[in-house]
Amino acid sequence: LAIDSQNAGTIINVTATDTNLNNAGINAVLANVDAGTGSLTLTNVTGTNSGFEGLSGSVATGGVLNLELDTVQFSGSGEDGLNVLVTSASVFNACIENSTFDGNGFTGIRIDTSDSGTESNVHIEGTSVDGNTEGGLVANVTASAELNLRTVNSSFDANGTFGSNDFDGVFVSAADQATARLLFNTTSADDNSRNGFNFSATNGAYMT
Fold first, then answer.
1. Cα-to-chain-centroid distance, residue 133
2. Would strands 64-73 and 91-97 be described as parallel, antiparallel, or unpaired?
3. What are the φ/ψ torsions at residue 189 (nearest 5 degrees)?
4. E strands, the chain, where?
5. pLDDT level of residue 162 (50, 70, 90 thresholds)
6. What are the Cα distances from residue 178, in Å, to 59, 112, 135, 144?
7. Interior CA angle at 201 toward 206 and 55, to 5°?
8. CA distances from 203 to 28, 146, 173, 175 (A)
9. pLDDT (tens digit, 9 = 90+) per residue, 13-47?
């Protein structure tokens, strides 16, 4: 399943329900937005055992990507369960509920946000991000961008199965005048290879 929204003024809205996207050679789901607007709603969708990522997304050049996931499973991927790159004054909005991102080859969920005017707003609720080879949730925000992240009733447990003590249940990094606003409510980060929660702010960043 792929969506691609190019150029300002372009809008694409896609909804998938009760759908299986398992064993994809590359990514189960691909969402690319460059200057346009893309909205993707997935309900009761399974995309396990992808060769690369379960869901791969990118937002650039002032684009907007809206992602609503309810009861989805992106587990067992060769790389990340969910990976989104947000740059150049773009906006990423995600609501993830009742979903599973377990046992992936790299991280369960990874979100990288950079550049002034760029913003990622992410809500995770009732979701499992456990047993990934590297980190559970990794979120990096740099270069004056903003990250607003909230998790509720979710688990980020037993990550770092690679065998080294380098991976956390939740790792958030803010650098170079970036802003990270974080809220964790009824969230577990147990039995990870390094830390449960690991927060880093450098070079004039603000984290709260």
1. 16
2. parallel
3. -145, 70
4. 2-6, 11-20, 29-34, 37-46, 55-60, 64-73, 82-86, 91-97, 109-114, 119-125, 137-142, 146-152, 170-175, 179-185, 197-202, 206-207
5. confident
6. 18, 12, 22, 4
7. 95
8. 37, 15, 11, 6
9. 999 999 999 999 999 999 999 999 999 999 999 99
